[in-house]
Amino acid sequence: MVKRILLTLTLVALILSVSFAQSKKNVPKKTQKEPEKIDRGYVTFGLGYGILSFKGDLGAEQKLTTFNNFRGGFNINIEKRFGKVLGVGFNTLIGKISQSERTPTRNLNFESPVKQFGLNVSGQFDIKQETAFAPFISVGIGTILFNPSSDLKDKDGKNYVYWSDGTIRDLPEKDAAGKIIKANKDSSKYLRRDYVYESKITTANDSMAIKKSSIVIPLTLGLKFKMGDRLDTRLAATYNLTQTDYMDGFVGGGKDGFIYLSMGLNYTFSKKYVPKAEQVYEGIDFAALLKEDNDDDGVLDDVDQCQQTPNGVQVDAFGCPLDSDNDGIPDYIDKEKETKAGAIVNQFGVTMTDEMISLQRAYRDSVVAERVSRFYDAPSKETLKDIDKQIAKKQSTGNHANITGAIPKTYQFADKDGNGVLSSTEISGAIDSFFEGEIDINVQTLLGLIDFFFEQ
Q1: 3-state secondary structure of 386
Q2: 102 and 30: one domain?
Q3: For residues 425-440, b (16+ Cβ closer than 10 Å) or e, as one string?
Q4: Are residues 29 and 82 in the same domain?
Q5: Using only C-alpha atoms, what is the Rg of the chain?
Q6: What's the sign of the alpha-carbon dihedral 371, 375, 379, 381?
Q7: d(Cα 442, Cα 380) in Å, to the nearest integer?
Q8: What's the Cα-to-Cα distance from 51 to each of 67, 89, 238, rounded to whole Å?
């Protein structure tokens, strides 16, 4: 019955595992769901069932085959992964072991419950998480508790007497001298083993007191079948080498041991894998950031195209100051509210006449050109400080608006501190970034930026 159950469960595991792998193979890459990446530091909980086959003194004389006599058991394991391969776990096994030996010289049998607890170190070879099959190995150390009993009496309490013809009777076949008792051949009654292990074994070989615990070293080789991102089935074979010869109640040919063949389900508890490059963002509430409005203009920062709008300034749906006459100058700066379409205006929105434009060009040709030359000729720190002071003086006298809107959008990228004024340091940085290819602007924009700096 146990063999049928194990065979059925094994076939189910194989079918599910193959189906899982085949389904991933048949789904087109474009529509295939990306497997969830699991953090390598995860904890796995597993529950398994299997069969235990004793390997010791009983059965050795008959050279009985492995699994000629087995019992069932179940195991629980908890594993913590460290890195890609190494794992450390705690495991427990509860079940029974049994063996019987029938030879001309001895007729022995035993059954014992076992409880085993221990730690193990494992090597997991599921390095590629998309792989459906992966082997694993482990070695551990633990404690095993046992309490052997023997089936010496039938259901009526009569002692078994084994005869040389293979029968079991209630009377002896020979006397103390080894002679056959003819009378017992006809008067003895046949008995049948009931396989109830009613007699506790307290001494080994009828002389040595039994110690009912031992150190045990489990050695495991197994195969993992991936059934999902967090669920897998494991088939494993474990040889449990004990440090005792008392498990079967008979001392003879060395340390006892047993084989445990099992199949189990394991579930992984872990957070979703986060690459190291992204771990710097852990703990940041991005949802809250999307709701921020740093300049309090009523437009959230993720939509606001004009950050740091002055308090009280009316803005459009994108957070930019209103420009009623569409002359490129915001209303709160514009000194000429109804500029005609297509008119050329200065930084304060005032229409420039031909005469004003000619004067400005002449001024730029004579003065601004000189300043640009001075700037390109690697001006000294003192010269740059002097220019910054001149700009600051204009601000203090009201000839310059100390706001981001005073800088045309084309040049606002250079205003790193966002104070509405371009300093010599910011212009130097923009020039360096241009030649290093860090900003995407053309030469005309750069020259215009420098012109604007001197015109502030």
Answers
A1: helix
A2: yes
A3: ebbeebbebbeeeebe
A4: yes
A5: 45
A6: positive
A7: 26
A8: 9, 21, 11
What per-residue confidence (pLDDT) applies to 430? 84
Q: Specify whether 97 is located in the same domain as 177.
A: no
How far is residue 47's CA from residue 16's CA, in Å, rounded to a whole number? 18
Residue 433 lies in a domain: yes
Q: Is residue 370's pLDDT more than 70?
A: no
pLDDT for res 267: 93
Reported as a pLDDT band with limits 50, 70 and 90, residue 363 is: low
Which two tokens mark 223? Answer: 């195969």
Whole-angstrom Cα distance, residue 289 to residue 50? 54
* Distance of alpha carbon 245 from alpha carbon 285, whole angstroms: 62
Lookup: tokens for 407: 């800088």
User: Quick one: 258 and 318 in the same domain?
Assistant: no
For residues 174 and 56, membership in a common domain is answered with no
Per-residue pLDDT, 92: 97
Q: How many domains does the chain have?
A: 3
221 vs 137: CA distance, rounded Å: 5
Q: Please check whether residue 275 lies inside any domain of the structure.
A: no
245 with 348, same domain: the answer is no
Question: CB under 8 Å to 353, separation ≥6 — which residues?
Answer: none
CATH number of the CATH domain containing 33:
2.40.160.20
49 and 137 belong to one structural domain: yes
Q: Do 28 and 125 sit in the same domain of this protein? A: yes
Closest CA to 184 of 198, 201, 165, 203: 165
Q: Tell me, yes or no, whether 283 lies in a domain.
A: no
- pLDDT at 145 exceeding the cut of 90: yes
The residue range of the domain holding 164 is 152-194
Q: For 42-62, how does the pLDDT look when each residue is reduced to its tens digit (9 = 90+)? A: 889 999 999 999 998 887 766
Summarize pLDDT for 262-276 with one digit per residue, the tens.
999 999 887 666 666
Tell me if 324 sits within 8 A of 337, measured CB to CB: yes
- Residues 387-434: pLDDT tens digits? 778 777 766 665 544 444 478 888 888 888 888 888 888 888 888 787
pTM of the model: 0.56
